[in-house]
Amino acid sequence: MEALETLTGRYGDEGDKLLFRVLNNGDLLAEVDDKILQDKDSNAILPYIAKRGLRYDLTVPFARYIVMNRHAIKLPFKRSAIQPVWRADRPQRGRYQEFYQCDADIAGSDSLYSEAELVKLYDEVFRRLNLPVVIRINSRKILQGIIQSCGMGERFSEVAIIIDKLDKISDEKGKELLVAKGFDPNEVNRLFELIHNTQLDSLKTTGVNALTQDGISDLETICSLCQSTGLTNQLIFDPSLARGLSYYTGAIFEVTALDANMGSIGGGGRYDNLTDSFGMPDIPGVGISFGAERIYDLMEEKNLFPPEVIKKSGVLILCMDAIAMETGFNLTSSLRNNHISTELYPEPGKVNKMMSYANDNGYSHVIIIGSDEVASGLFTVKNMHSGIQQKLTSDELLSQLV
Amino acid sequence: MEALETLTGRYGDEGDKLLFRVLNNGDLLAEVDDKILQDKDSNAILPYIAKRGLRYDLTVPFARYIVMNRHAIKLPFKRSAIQPVWRADRPQRGRYQEFYQCDADIAGSDSLYSEAELVKLYDEVFRRLNLPVVIRINSRKILQGIIQSCGMGERFSEVAIIIDKLDKISDEKGKELLVAKGFDPNEVNRLFELIHNTQLDSLKTTGVNALTQDGISDLETICSLCQSTGLTNQLIFDPSLARGLSYYTGAIFEVTALDANMGSIGGGGRYDNLTDSFGMPDIPGVGISFGAERIYDLMEEKNLFPPEVIKKSGVLILCMDAIAMETGFNLTSSLRNNHISTELYPEPGKVNKMMSYANDNGYSHVIIIGSDEVASGLFTVKNMHSGIQQKLTSDELLSQLV
């Protein structure tokens, strides 16, 4: 939870609508103005009945944290965090109302080395996950410069919101929406030409304006740093990349998996003014986020989870009767003390039923204990992969299974 | 979030009061009865404006999960989970409105081996954390049997709530409260004698009733199983242990740290009827919970975090100028590729300032790069523990730092 005043107004109008509010406890309506209740004014009642909300992302809470702990934190400050966030969106494939974000942020430096490091982090993580991606990069400076140069600078966020949707709506539709908002069709056409110019060099020569040139120079630095150390995945400049959130000021990133139908699985950017609104100016920041559920869903679809992650391995101990259970409990304990992942089927039962449980759960070995085993101290061990069955003492067990 | 109908009524009256409700989105007041608004009836309005709540614990959502996934789950089913929970309690030392619980549960078996395994899990975790604890154990059967035998069985939960508070209020006060509720002072005295009888053997011979005897027999089995494999921490029978939550049916546990002023840092028990209320009877369950923040706070107070957890280790690269930064960025990349934890100070700066940053953050090695180093390919490496400074090639660096 965060105070609603921390959350409200940081994510644009659309973000505000998607915030989940937490109801105050106690006598909710006592202090509410009678007129609000009479009018059934659902907006006006909100400040009376909810003072807290659920996190919408991890970046704004991070800025709030820095400001609250300004005296304890040494800048530059790096943090990583994995936490749930909530958005009152309509649930659909890849879109959840409650989901986990994994964030990495660097606060307290405006060095472009931070951006380069975060691009490399994206690259390395998806390399290790075996999930090929495209990392798209743009700069709010470029986007803002282009929009300004088309005479739309006064209404930047209206224009940016439409550009942000171009992966879902057609260019034609996007142009229509802008013209309907009263923009000059020629300027709109020029805007679309510029934002589809995906070559830094060629955009540079169009001589747009100083702000755009500044953004281009940033991206040249970031890209050349990343390329100098080698990237596994593609890093692509895309001047039509807008990002929905309102707090970005410099480079912005968005990651999409190749050959997948799953929107972005990561995004981020530079937010140099975010702590200002909490009363602490001049703390530049930049960060990226991974969408845990979407990455999980994709890895499941593409069978990228290694077998040892999906299936349990280790040993399952099955006991035939109550006496055997005691032996099994002690054996479980000594196998675990020797760092052998071991489970005890918690009650005696029929071998067939218990063996099918062992199969379903992918145990690598099953130890069966009956009265013979208790008497002889020799345990029957079955390797579930090879099917081979052996009789072993507990010492032999330990040395074979470690 | 959970549907409020999943949460309400599962934690006793006190629990219901401590639930956080999440406000519905959209036009909140449209459907609310005019009379409720006129009367400012804060209770009656709740069902209209909030249909979801925040998790109060992880056990009830686990039961809901089992019922929803009954066809996919193979019983017995074990799960562990680490997730935030929320309670609208007054915040104080060790009591947070948002905190993390770490739970381990076994569903689908009524075997007492499950209880024994969970006690051993408590024991092993706190042994590894170096935090000596007392694990108190009781059974709801014993408590219920005792309360019945004192003629208070009809009002079990009222009595249990007062017993649950005896670690905070005196026995005198507890007796007063019960007498004030109309219970016979002689029976109240007998109740207190019985719940302070901490010897299983001697409680057994008081011949309370069959339910108590059944609970005693359970605990004898659990304790003897645990002792047979050895415990590091104390396992103590405490018939006055009640646990606040209403869903327990059998053994209950509570863990307290020795020499600490911090309430319980773990608790749990058997809940054999929890899925019933979701329409799926006969799924017995038992589970335990660790309170992450309280354990963290205690470990911090007692200096139990190993130094390598508190302090960063690894290498910090400091660069004198823009050219050195490029070299530093490449070196960071190659050290990381060799699994050496490495950070690059993100901008060139004054050595003194950057060295004090390195000191404050506990890096084990600092590499300083200036124009000399770029030209010669020899890097200045300072071991921050010994203070020894060397000039090394990047190959020598890799072999020394791995």
Topology:
Two copies of one chain form a homodimer.
Chain A: E1 2-3, H1 4-7, H2 12-17, E2 21-22, H3 34-38, H4 42-49, E3 52-53, H5 59-68, E4 77-86, E5 98-107, H6 112-128, E6 133-139, H7 140-149, H8 156-164, H9 171-180, H10 185-195, H11 200-205, H12 210-229, E7 234-237, E8 251-257, E9 264-270, E10 285-291, H13 292-301, H14 307-310, E11 315-319, H15 322-337, E12 342-344, H16 351-360, E13 365-369, H17 371-376, E14 379-383, E15 389-392, H18 394-401
Parallel strand pairs in A: 6-7, 11-12, 11-13
Antiparallel strand pairs in A: 1-3, 2-3, 4-5, 5-10, 6-8, 8-9, 9-10, 13-14, 14-15
Characterization of this structure:
- The structure is a homodimer of 402-residue chains.
- Chain A is α+β, with helices and mostly antiparallel strands and 402 residues long.
- Chain A folds into two domains: 56-301, Bira Bifunctional Protein, Domain 2 (BirA Bifunctional Protein, domain 2), CATH 3.30.930.10; 309-401, Anticodon-binding domain (Rossmann fold, 3-Layer(aba) Sandwich).
- Chain A is built from 18 helices and 15 strands.
- The first copy, chain A, has helices spanning 4-7, 12-17, 34-38, 42-49, 59-68, 112-128, 140-149, 156-164, 171-180, 185-195, 200-205, 210-229, 292-301, 307-310, 322-337, 351-360, 371-376, 394-401; strands spanning 2-3, 21-22, 52-53, 77-86, 98-107, 133-139, 234-237, 251-257, 264-270, 285-291, 315-319, 342-344, 365-369, 379-383, 389-392.
- The model of chain A has no long low-confidence stretch (mean pLDDT 94).
- The interface between A and B is large, with 59 and 59 residues.
